[in-house]
């Protein structure tokens, strides 16, 4: 029995490792194409540690690669203490992967031929956001401000895309003084697009819904939801404001694809039931897989 458990654990760890490697390559490939195919040819400014490095390079003439490495050292040290050593280690590997793929994809703009700066900002932002989202969803990143945003996500539950957008807005504002206002404005469009995509990939396409149902047939409804949707329900004690009658209030979480079936169940069991459905951002617990940071 113990041997079987160890083999199962080893197999799961190997699958997890393989998945991280695949998505690290894929995510950074998307980011590299966005950078070399859309951003650089159209002179869009960089955000994050790259943007800071460019500014320092402009002022000191130090190599950008060296500046990026130096800036990332304290960030990785802090990240390993606050977030997760495994996440930090994978992020370091991801940073090296990105550097390699950026070299590998140099010249790809000759194939894409995107000379419209607005389209470059939008589609480059989509590709970049998709790449970063895949990394975050698989608990890794590209280091730099990604790790700082992950810290804010853990400490203050601020969306990673929102956090990165806030940091980069400050960086772009400073960069615009050195490189001009117009490129900075288009860069903000690219960054906004990127981080909206990051949040969507983080949350997933099948979002979760918070459902509250008030019904005189709460027991039947609860049993039907558990049987047909395979979702747990919780009965909260409620009291009618007018009738003063005690009632069980049904509370449950379902996925967006289950909402239609849930409405059918409620209509079938108690058409007069009162129901509210709200979007929720994150769910952690039995029956729901926690993803990302």
UniProtKB/TrEMBL annotation:
The chain positions of domain DUF2179 read 231-285
Q: How does it sit in the membrane?
A: Multi-pass membrane protein
Q: Which GO terms describe its cellular component?
A: plasma membrane
- Looking at the keywords, is Transmembrane present? yes
Q: Which InterPro entries match?
A: DUF2179 (IPR019264), N-reg_PII/ATP_PRibTrfase_C (IPR015867), UPF0750_membrane (IPR051461), YitT (IPR003740)
Q: Which Gene3D superfamilies match?
A: 3.30.70.120
Instruction: Using the UniProt record, give the first listed, main subcellular location.
Output: membrane
| Positions of transmembrane segments | 21-40, 52-75, 87-105, 117-136, 156-181
- Keyword Lyase listed? The answer is no
Q: Which UniProt keywords apply?
A: Cell membrane, Membrane, Transmembrane, Transmembrane helix
Q: Which domain of life is it from?
A: Bacteria
Q: Where in the cell is it found?
A: Cell membrane
Q: What is this protein called?
A: Uncharacterized membrane-anchored protein YitT, contains DUF161 and DUF2179 domains
Organism lineage string = Bacteria, Bacillati, Bacillota, Tissierellia, Tissierellales
């Amino acid at each position: 029995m113990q041997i079987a458990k160890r083999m199962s654990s080893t197999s799961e760890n190997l699958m997890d490792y393989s998945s991280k490697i695949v998505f690290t390559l894929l995510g950074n490939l998307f980011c590299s194409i966005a950078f070399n195919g859309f951003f650089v040819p159209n002179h869009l400014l960089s955000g994050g540690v790259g943007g800071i490095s460019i500014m320092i390079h402009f002022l000191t003439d130090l190599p950008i690669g060296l500046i990026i490495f130096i800036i990332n050292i304290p960030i990785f040290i802090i990240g390993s203490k606050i977030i997760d050593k495994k996440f930090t280690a994978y992020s370091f590997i991801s940073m090296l992967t990105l550097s390699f793929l950026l070299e590998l994809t140099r010249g790809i703009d000759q194939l894409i031929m995107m000379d419209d700066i607005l389209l470059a900002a939008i589609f480059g932002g989509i590709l970049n956001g998709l790449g970063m989202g895949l990394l975050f969803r698989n608990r890794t990143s590209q280091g730099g401000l990604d790790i700082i945003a992950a810290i804010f996500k853990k400490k203050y539950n601020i969306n990673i895309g929102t956090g990165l957008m806030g940091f980069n807005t400050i960086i772009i504002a400073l960069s615009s003084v050195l490189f001009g206002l117009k490129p900075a404005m288009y860069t903000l469009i690219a960054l906004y697009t990127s981080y909206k995509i990051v949040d969507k990939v983080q949350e997933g396409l099948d979002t979760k819904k918070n459902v509250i149902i008030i019904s005189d047939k709460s027991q039947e409804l609860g049993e039907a939801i558990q049987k047909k949707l395979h979702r747990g329900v919780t009965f909260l004690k409620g009291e009618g404001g007018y009738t003063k009658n005690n009632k069980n209030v049904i509370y449950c979480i379902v996925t967006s694809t289950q909402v239609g079936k849930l409405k059918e169940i409620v209509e079938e069991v108690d058409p007069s039931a009162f129901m509210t459905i709200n979007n929720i951002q994150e769910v952690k617990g039995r029956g729901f897989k926690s993803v990302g940071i």
